[in-house]
Design brief:
The protein has about 350 residues and is an all-beta fold. It has strands at about 1-5, 5-15, 20-30, 35-40, 50-55, 60-65, 70-75, 80-85, 95-100, 105-110, 120-125, 130-135, 140-145, 155-160, 165-170, 180-185, 190-195, 200-205, 210, 220-225, 230-235, 250-255, 260-265, 275, 280-285, 290, 295-300, 305-310, 325-330, 345-355.
Length: about 350
């Protein structure tokens, strides 16, 4: 007996980075008092940026997210060479990494976000060149990207201070293994690391590093941020270890794939660190410009802070195509083919097939 069976094919799609588009940029601060604004944090209420500038006497500035004149809340000693900044979930405390002026003495500080005396949370080995820093969602733990190329790695540290714990060591690829910037997933379970030539992920409790595949080779990824839904990474590629290429910003699914170019060219100069607003609509970038600590460089581009709008696009559902109807005898082997299916916004990761009642026993 031959029977015509109706087949329903259901698709589950993996959305890639074209699930967001990007709009205009707005300059928030340009030039003095900023010299080399390297790193940036956003207050939990989303109203204030905190910017660390290691060339402006290691100053930490406060700046409204709408722009204006940066206001100093701390500067000078004991800060020596600031490389990273983050803020506690309640907004009361800033956390700062500093590579120090003495080789082998990396430092992590805390200080009130309204300004005040810094407190040393950790100093010296195993921290040598701590850069990016991220706070766990519950505020109890700091995650630190240790960028010393002889022993780069990811460390955790209690937010109250203590002994840093190594979560993972970064392989020394061609002597340039790096851990430059770090961010944490909204649930606090996963860390993402900008590691120069690679982007890594790892459990926040520690474990093996996983390289996130990227079809476009990275020249030198120096900063990383994560979308509000935890699905899309934003990567700042500084163009090389000695700035041999253009500075670019990409977006990339956390599972990897083909990155989407977000920004190339002005107002982006040499780059720095970047952070995404808590609602996921704006990307704030601290950019050191083309300067050194003594003067504006030959290209005349001072440090700046700007914001790039991120506009979520409408997500299109996947299109299921179960192929032609099949007429077959009982017990006959048939081949089902859903290869005609597609997803306008991403990649299909799962097929589910169901049959009209009476077609199967």
């Amino acid at each position: 007996m031959k029977r015509l069976c109706s087949i329903l094919l259901v698709l589950v799609a993996l959305l890639f980075s074209n699930s967001a588009s990007f709009g205009e940029t707005t300059m928030l601060a340009y030039g003095p008092p900023l010299v080399d604004p390297l790193c940036i944090a956003i207050s939990p209420d989303g109203t204030t940026l905190f910017i660390a500038d290691y060339c402006a006497n290691n100053a930490i500035f406060r700046l409204p997210v709408t722009g204006g004149t940066p206001t100093i809340i701390a500067s000078g000693p004991p800060f020596e060479n600031i490389r990273g900044i983050d803020i506690s979930p309640d907004g009361s405390t800033l956390f700062v990494t500093d590579v120090g002026s003495v080789e082998g003495r990396g430092i992590v500080f805390s200080l009130p976000s309204i300004g005040g005396a810094p407190t040393i949370l950790a100093s010296g080995p195993p921290l040598v060149s701590p850069h990016g820093i991220a706070t766990s969602p519950d505020g109890s733990t700091l995650f630190i990207a240790e960028n010393w190329f002889y022993a780069a790695g990811i460390f955790s540290l209690p937010a109250t201070g203590g002994e840093p714990i190594l979560l993972a060591a970064v392989p020394p690829y061609t002597n340039y293994g790096r851990a430059i910037d770090i961010c944490v997933s909204p649930d606090g379970n996963t860390l993402f690391v900008a590691g120069g030539f690679c982007i890594y992920s790892l459990p926040s409790t520690g474990g093996a590093l996983s390289v996130i595949p990227c079809t476009t080779p990275l020249s030198y990824a120096t900063s990383i941020a994560l979308s509000a839904d935890g699905q899309t990474l934003f990567i700042l590629d500084s163009g090389g270890i000695v700035s041999i290429g253009p500075t670019l910003i990409y977006s990339l699914p956390i599972s990897g794939g083909t990155p989407t170019l977000v920004l190339s060219g002005p107002p982006l100069a040499a780059g720095g660190f970047m952070r995404l607003s808590h609602d996921g609509t704006k990307l704030y970038v601290a950019d050191i410009g083309f300067v050194d600590c003594s003067s504006v460089g030959p290209l005349g581009e001072p440090g700046r802070v700007f914001v790039l709008s991120v506009v979520p696009s409408v997500i299109q559902p996947p299109i299921a195509d179960a192929g032609d109807d099949i007429v077959a005898d009982a017990n006959e082997v048939v081949t089902l083919d859903g290869s005609g299916s597609s997803d306008p916004d991403g990649q299909i990761i799962k097929y589910t097939v169901s049959f009209r009642q009476g077609c199967m026993k």
